[in-house]
Amino acid sequence: MIDLVWDTGTAATVSLGADRSLQVGAASGLAPADLAAAAAAADVMSAFLAAAAEAEAPILGYAATADVETAPSGRSALRLRSYIVASAGMTDERFSALAAAALERSAVARLFAGNLAAEWDLRVLRGASCAEA
């Protein structure tokens, strides 16, 4: 749970517990839409890596970008791009199953149901193994 307290103008402080907080709003440079994008990217990553660990998938790296876009109609959508590096043994079918599982498991991604565009970019390093990473 978080607590949000208005500071001034359109700025607020978000308390995360255990003496952790962050400033949000125009003055801080961290817009609420940025927080939504970060939450979705982090939650999908966690869900993907958990599914990969359960499947003993050879993941070497993961990065993502995310942003909330507003269409001319005013409707907002989340665009999430995930970049995964895997070693030999990762097939397109196996990867597709992990990506689908990540989106299904991610509570934050489910909040954006119907308004989430997820793109996945897989790079397989044929000569690498997880033991070398």
The strands making up the biggest β-sheet line up spatially as 1-2-3
Spans of at least 5 consecutive residues with low confidence: none
Describe the main β-sheet briefly: 3 strands, antiparallel
Distance between the termini: 35 Å
Helix content: 25-40%
**CATH-level-2 architecture of the largest domain:** 2-Layer Sandwich
Instruction: Determine the mean pLDDT.
Output: 90
The succession of helices and strands, N to C, reads EEEHEEHHE
CATH class of the largest domain: Alpha Beta
- How large is the radius of gyration? 18 Å
User: What name goes with the CATH superfamily of the largest domain?
Assistant: K homology (KH) domain
Overall shape: elongated
User: In total, how many domains does the architecture comprise?
Assistant: 2
Q: Report the structural category.
A: alpha+beta
Q: Approximately how much beta-strand content do the residues carry? A: 35-45%
The total of helices stands at 3
Description:
- With 133 residues, the chain is an alpha+beta fold.
- Helices cover 32% and strands 39% of the residues.
- It has helices spanning 32-54, 92-105, 107-111, and strands spanning 3-8, 11-17, 20-24, 59-70, 76-87, 116-125.
- The strands form 2 sheets. A 3-stranded antiparallel sheet has the order 1-2-3, with no helix packed on it. It has a 3-stranded mixed sheet with strand order 4-5-6, with helices on one face.
- A hairpin with a 5-residue loop joins strand 4 (59-70) and strand 5 (76-87).
- Helix 1 (32-54) packs across helix 2.
- The chain is elongated, with a radius of gyration of 18 Å.
- The termini are far apart.
- The mean pLDDT is 90.
